[in-house]
Amino acid sequence: MLERRIAQGRGDEPADLVLRGGVVWCMVTGARIPGDVAICGDRIVGIGADYDAKRVIDVSGKLLVPGFIDTHLHIESSCITPFEFDRCVTPRGVTTAICDPHEIANVAGLAGIRYFLDASARTVMDIRVNLSSCVPSTHMETAGAALSADDLAPLADHPQVIGLAEFMNYPGVIHRDPGCMDKLRAFEGRHIDGHAPLLSGRDLNAYVSAGIRTEHEATSAAEATEKLQKGLRVLIREGSVSKDLEALAEILTPLTSAYLCLCTDDRNPLDIAEHGHLDYMIRRLIEKGCDPLAVYRAASLSAAEAFGLKDRGQIAPGKRADIVVLDDAADCRARMVLCAGVVADAAAFEARDLIAPVARASVHVPALTPASFRYAGNNAETPVIGIWPGKILTEHITETIPATDGDKRPDVARDLARITVIERHGKNGNIANGFVRGFELKRGAIASTVCHDHHNIAVVGVDYADMALAAQRLGEIEGGFVVVEGGKVLAELALPVAGLMSLESFEHVRDALTALREAARSLGVTLEEPFLQLAFVALPVIPHLKITDFGLVDVDRFEVIG
Q: Cβ contacts of residue 424 below 8 Å, gap of 6+?
């Protein structure tokens, strides 16, 4: 193969494939280079010259840019399998996805990670895996599995593994928790992905000193700037809930673009259908006034360099033939996508060797009655989780809520809904109740098994009987999303793979999410993505107040408070 590449690059023999008539946009110099793009197997072997070829694709008048790299995401949050994610996102120009399978790992442990590794060898796009560093994310929740450094180390040399995924337990890092230290030592010298919301000053210095290289939790320009100055590469995030692009656009300049990347973190098929994926981020950043070359560099070359993927990120000889064909840079609508020299079309997706999913029948619902959702307490002063739309950060509010007959009840007039987390892995049957503001529920309940990162059942409601029905229904459908009102299920989406992913197509999931959103709105919910927003209410590594099956968690103090 090496000799063939050299021969085809020199023109001594016809190339396997030539893209003819387009213009290559160089991510290093910014030059627009006319001429053929010659491809041998999965590699580019020539640009800027005329080539003979066994196969020619006419791209006259088109702009050719390197394939986009999503530098941090959880495929499980798309509610579809890696194969359907591939089919959904690759035609939009994403040729590499760096995923952290810690959602399925928190349910199924190593079996979940191995499923993603096996799938990655069969997708059209290149799925790379960062091994899940925090399973569970903290000691303040019940997960379905626990992974130690010894569990992860044997997978470190897998060809699809980059390194260690987002190290969410930042208190464990800066206070030198032994388990955290074991994982950091096991992956020392490899890529270690960060997760340090609002961390600053000496604590940030300590965190970065642990060998952590990248960070996607910056939510303000000032926070991102400090993290850049302290050696982190910042991943600008625009997910279905965590929308940080608007706040961070100002830091993306030709000067900083070498150290900035793009990521989606958590994005569902409905959002992708309505807005897009990385293509949407590119369009929006250019609309915001960012230099187009800087934007495309962040989406490709800078991402490749940040994660040690030296074989991609540029349309140049010797690089992987990951190419996006565009009409216009600002519009960023992929007309054709090549992944490793293969056109990402229906035939390519049909040719994949699919594998069976894992982690079926993983949802075990304890016996529930309306009384399970009562909230006792003698002190009228009550902590309330405050939702910030478009953020996974939550507010720690205190409200006066007197008890009636030994129960602090939801108060629709004050937008105080019950939030309940129910352990569903069959380990202890824990049930924790609290209050949340921001859903604006007037009736009924919504429930989900997509509940970061432990993926227990989370229910928000104002009617206890509806809350019980919603949770029980999740057990019957093997997990997913449910909307209930007046003792009836209004809408649902079954996610039987670990309670996280559908067995259906992304089109089916998209349509079901549309119906779920409409059903939630009929109950008064105003949040754009209520189910993903609900998922993050239970994540105890994101400030400020959260809830797990252990109870309410003060994230700033990193302790359970009730």
A: 362, 363, 364, 365, 449, 455, 456, 457, 474, 475, 479, 499
Quickly count: other Cβ atoms within 10 Å of residue 105's Cβ.
33
**Tokens found for residue 243:** 């929308």
Q: What is the pLDDT of residues 477-495, one digit of tens each?
A: 999 999 999 999 999 999 9
| Contact indicator for 471, 459 with CB cutoff of 8 Å | yes
Within 8 A by CB and 6+ apart from 340, the residues are 42, 126, 320, 321, 322
Is 2-61's fold the same as 67-313's? no
The mean per-residue pLDDT over the stretch 364-384 comes to: 94
398 near 381, Cβ under 8 Å? yes
As separate numbers, helices (DSSP H) first and strands (DSSP E) second, the chain gives: 18, 29
CATH architecture under which domain 2-61 falls: Roll (2.30)
pLDDT at res. 439:
97
The per-residue pLDDT for 321 is: 98
The count of residues in the chain is 562
CA atoms of 276 and 264, how far apart (whole Å): 10
Average confidence (pLDDT) over 416-429? 98
Taking a C-beta distance cutoff of 8 angstroms, is the pair 199, 215 a contact?
no
**Rounded Cα distance, 247 and 148, in Å:** 36
| Arithmetic mean of pLDDT, 361-380 | 94
Confidence of residue 241 (pLDDT cuts 50, 70, 90): confident
Residue 226 neighbours by CB distance under 10 Å: 17
Report strand pairing: 323-326 vs 488-494.
Answer: unpaired
CA 196/CA 541 separation, integer angstroms: 9
Question: Tokens representing 280?
Answer: 């949407």
Residue pair 358/369 in contact by the 8 Å Cβ criterion: no
Contact 65, 25 (CB under 8 A): yes
CATH 3.20.20.140 applies to domain 67-313: yes
d(CA 319, CA 460): 49
Q: With beta carbons less than 8 A apart as the criterion, state whether 268 and 493 touch.
A: no
Indicate the pairing of strand 214-215 with strand 233-237. Answer: parallel
Pairing of strands 445-448, 457-461: antiparallel
Query: Average pLDDT over the chain, rounded to whole?
Result: 97
- State whether residue 105 is helix, strand or coil: helix
* Dihedral-angle region of residue 111 (phi above 0 means left; psi in -120 to 50 means alpha; beta otherwise): alpha
DSSP secondary structure code for residue 290 in this structure: -
Yes or no: say if 152 and 370 are a contact pair by the CB < 8 Å rule: no
Which distant-in-sequence residues (6+ apart) come within 8 Å of 98 by Cβ?
A: 69, 70, 71, 72, 73, 128, 129, 130, 162, 307
The domain ranges of the chain are: 2-61, 67-313, 370-560
Contact 463, 114 (CB under 8 A): no
| Chain segment 281-335, per-residue pLDDT in tens | 999 999 999 999 999 999 999 999 999 999 999 999 999 999 999 999 999 999 9
